[in-house]
Design goal:
single chain
Length: 81
Amino acid sequence: MGIRNIITRLKIGRGDADNMFPYDENMHEAVIRCSICTGEQVAGFKNRQDGSFVGVMVIKSDDDLEYFKELYGVEKVRKVY
């Protein structure tokens, strides 16, 4: 488990809602940004208007992806490269 993932889980685990990304389904799309070179995967949100990406957590396993989906209440997450 990566250090970013651990820190994110610790912040969320404390119930500190100020640290969560303000996800709005109308403005953002949940995506996993994948690196072609390293294989690193980062779950986050892509702005539907300008295409900007905000990473929320590193995905290292299926459990991490399920945690991300549960945390933000999303069902579908597509991969972008």
